[in-house]
Amino acid sequence: MEDSFKSLIASAKSILILLPEKPNFDQVASGLSLFLALGQEQGKEVNVFCSTQMVVEFNRLVGVNKIKNELGNKNLGISFSNYNPQGIEKVSWDIDNGEFKLTIVPKPNVIPPTEDQVHVSYAGVATDLVILVGGTNDDSFPALKTGELVNAKLVHVGISELRLTGKTVSSLATAGSCVSEVVSNLIKKSGYEINADIATDLLMGIEEGTGGFAGSGVSADTFGMIADLMRAGGKRLSQGQVEAKDYPVGAIPGAAGQVPSSWTEPKIFKGTSVS
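The structure corresponding to this sequence follows.
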């Protein structure tokens, strides 16, 4: 299994990790762990995407703000909201001290677009390999129906078979207590480093995915993996225990040392899109 996974990773320059629609904690932890592990590979672009937004309970996972809600990493687009395009005289570009600069020149006596009116987005997908995490069928991954990923290889990681219509998928699904346990074994056997951040996500994923280590699929191997993850620096953080010092710089959106107030409110948490 690990040789097949490593060969797929080795042959890909751009990797997209797809989480299922409305994922559970275990699936998000698994996807982020793969994102962090594969991000160690030099020269490879790794992104993680979910068609639905992350909920507040996932905020304790390292890297949750890296999950994109817009599928696109190929073409950069810049638009101006609530701005009359007739007020633009010309658009020019230049390279100054090695930096690309785009200049919007308004017509005389016309106010230029404000920073709040500028919106940056990506369109089109350039990826060689798509890793599907969890899920059961086509409805789990709406992104596969867009046609953007038709030329990419598909590989599935989970604890049960994924049924896709008219698509070829390399299955790495194996029996396990939860997806996080399967991913833990996959990362370990493939030779990728499991650092403290990865171990923390996987440890919490296993705990949530097994209902506090009490699920029917929990085995001695599960507890062996739990011990390995704790030795690697994994932490068991329950909801409400998150502190900025527990995460690397940039892992939590907002000011350093503070958790955004919106995370404690009973609403959907929006992670920051990162290219």
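The longest helix spans residues 25-38.
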